[in-house]
Amino acid sequence: RGPRAAEQDLAGRHVVISAGGTREPLDPVRYLGNRSSGKQGYALARTAVARGARVTLVAGNTELPDPAGVDVIRIGTARQLHEAVVKAAAEADAVVMAAAVADFRPAAYTTGKIKKVEGQEPEPVALVRNPDILAEVSAERARRGQVVVGFAAETDDVLANGRAKLARKGCDLLVVNEVGEHKAFGSAENEAVILAADGSETPVPYGPKEDLAETVWDLVVPRLADTER
Ligand code: CTP
Ligand code: CA
Predict the structure, then answer these.
(1) Contact 186/37 with Cβ under 8 angstroms?
(2) What is the mean pLDDT of residues 113-139?
(3) Which atom of ligand 1 is nearest to the CA of 131?
(4) Does the annotation mark 34 as catalytic?
(5) Which of 3, 96, 121, 187 keeps 20 to 30 A from 51, CA to CA?
(6) ipTM exceeds 0.90
(7) Domain boundaries, the chain
(8) Predicted structure pTM score
(9) Is the minimum distance from the CB of 134 to ligand 1 under 6 angstroms?
(10) 67 pLDDT exceeds 80?
């Protein structure tokens, strides 16, 4: 990309990015999943490499090829994502949670395939909550001055919901998408407002996910700790 990428303003920095959706198994052939394509997280990884960062990408289910120069860790479930992100965050200058994490998982895994029983309705599927990775990483700040970024797709009162979520999670930046046709899931384009804990709001016009990624790094860079690199 253009002049911003040439600046190498992430040189000497380690960034951890999560991408794609998690899958929560129900039995050997079934899972609960979501429609995340992983494209936004991969765009964040590519742009961070171009700006000089060392990049760890923790990737859930996606059909995208590994980006060049990136350390890719593949995970399936939210609990595996949790373990991988918390471990990688210990040495990260910034953590960006672009993954679509399943909020719930089936309470029990059935080791054999669930079968129909003649003349019977199915058992309901009981769910339990998964750990909130973004809230935990934000609260712990494994490294002094670590910058933490979340994503949120919202409907209705998008900005008010986003502000409340930013405060609840305790992160520095929250990228808020309005969910709608041709936006966010699966598409190569995105439109967002980036809310910061200091109260600022940065609108990002509809365009390639690469542009949104560059704007995220533009906002992360001045917030990074001025530490030894
Ligand atoms: N997230 C996370 N761990 C979870 C759920 C979400 O780290 N168990 C992260 C996502 O990666 C995203 C941010 O939190 O960066 C916001 O996700 P979102 O689903 O919008 O937030 P929730 O707190 O799950 O709220 P909601 O009830 O609206 O789904
Ligand atoms: Ca959620």
Answers:
(1) yes
(2) 96
(3) 8
(4) yes
(5) 187
(6) yes
(7) 11-106+126-221
(8) 0.95
(9) yes
(10) yes
| Strand 147-154 with 201-208, pairing | unpaired
The tens digit of pLDDT for each residue in 22-65 reads 999 999 999 999 999 999 999 999 999 999 999 999 999 999 99
pLDDT of residue 168: 98
Alpha carbon separation from 130 to 23, 78, 223 (Å, rounded): 12, 7, 29
Check if 49 has its Cβ closer than 6 Å to any atom of ligand 1. Answer: no
Gap between the Cα atoms of 131 and 10, Å rounded:
30
CATH of 11-106+126-221, one of 2.102.10.10, 2.60.120.230, 3.40.50.10300, 3.40.50.720: 3.40.50.10300
- State whether residue 101 is helix, strand or coil: coil
- Catalytic-labelled residue, pool 34, 61, 177, 190: 34
**Distance, C-alpha 148 to centroid of its chain:** 11
Residue nearest (by alpha carbon) to ligand 1 atom 16: 152
Q: Are 86 and 137 in contact (CB under 8 A)?
A: yes
SS3 per residue for 103-139: CEEECCCCCCCCCCCCCCCCCCCCEEECCCHHHHHHH
Q: What is the pLDDT of residues 190-222, one digit of tens each?
A: 889 999 999 999 999 999 999 999 999 999 999
Whole-angstrom Cα distance, residue 38 to residue 67? Answer: 12
